[in-house]
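Design request, tokens follow.
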């Protein structure tokens, strides 16, 4: 199996892309330290992961706080004695134009999307250097494409990609660092995002039809790419932001 005897931390793992990534990694033989803020969802995820692979633990907490990320790294080493990779997947939208967006919401969006990625990487890097590990950030095409009333989301995702490239420079060849930039994926987040558009009930269908593949992405689509980036099959890839969007960016 691609990730046999490897240990990965996956944040934002209780739904959507994060859940799919955790499950795919477990099926590939990885030990999983999963994270989310909802303890009930976390218990359900843990039961599902342990049916696949016994090496799984769930840590409840807000990764926008430094100590939660430090705890995730501690748990990986406590239970499995090593850390081979992290997937920074936790995310939030922070909807509203700059003039309308509350400063508190701006900071919350950056805490969840960007600062959590910094914290987790900071605490994980010394362990990843020992293992020749990998860092994967789940960013977005919003890193390079604007959307109505998404300034905090777009800015934080662009910063994630910049940080990926910087860390690839600073920590290669010991650690590979890459970003995934999904387009419209059928998760709860896309339905929340639709609220920022004039006709939210129609926009999701329109977006799906505007992809060259004429459908929304699925969490499994993203998880398969994450699995590739986590495995030795991508051993010569670092410092890149891989777009997976059904062709949205090609048709701009």
């Amino acid at each position: 199996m691609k990730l046999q005897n490897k240990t990965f931390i996956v944040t934002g793992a209780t739904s959507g892309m994060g859940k799919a990534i955790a499950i795919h990694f477990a099926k590939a033989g990885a030990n999983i330290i999963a994270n989310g803020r909802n303890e009930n969802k976390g218990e359900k995820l843990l039961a599902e992961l342990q049916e696949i692979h016994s090496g799984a633990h769930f840590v409840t907490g807000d990764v926008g706080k430094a100590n939660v990320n430090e705890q995730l790294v501690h748990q990986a080493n406590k239970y499995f004695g090593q850390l081979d990779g992290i997937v920074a997947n936790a995310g939030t939208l922070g909807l509203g134009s700059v003039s309308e967006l509350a400063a508190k919401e701006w900071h919350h969006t950056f805490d969840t999307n960007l600062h959590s990625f910094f914290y987790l990487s900071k605490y994980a890097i010394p362990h990843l250097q020992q293992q020749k590990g990998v860092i994967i950030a789940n960013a977005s095409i919003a890193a390079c494409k604007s959307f109505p009333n998404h300034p905090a989301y777009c800015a934080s995702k662009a910063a994630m990609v910049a940080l990926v490239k910087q860390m690839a420079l600073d920590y290669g060849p010991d650690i590979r660092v890459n970003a995934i930039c999904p387009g419209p994926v059928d998760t709860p987040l896309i339905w929340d995002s639709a609220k920022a558009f004039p006709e939210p009930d129609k926009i999701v269908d329109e977006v799906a039809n505007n992809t060259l593949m004429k459908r929304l992405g699925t969490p499994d689509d993203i998880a398969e790419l994450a699995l590739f980036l986590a495995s030795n099959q991508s051993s010569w890839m670092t410092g890149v932001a891989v777009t997976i969007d059904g062709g949205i960016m090609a048709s701009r």
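Comment from the thread starter after seeing the answer: thanks! The chain has a mean pLDDT of 95.
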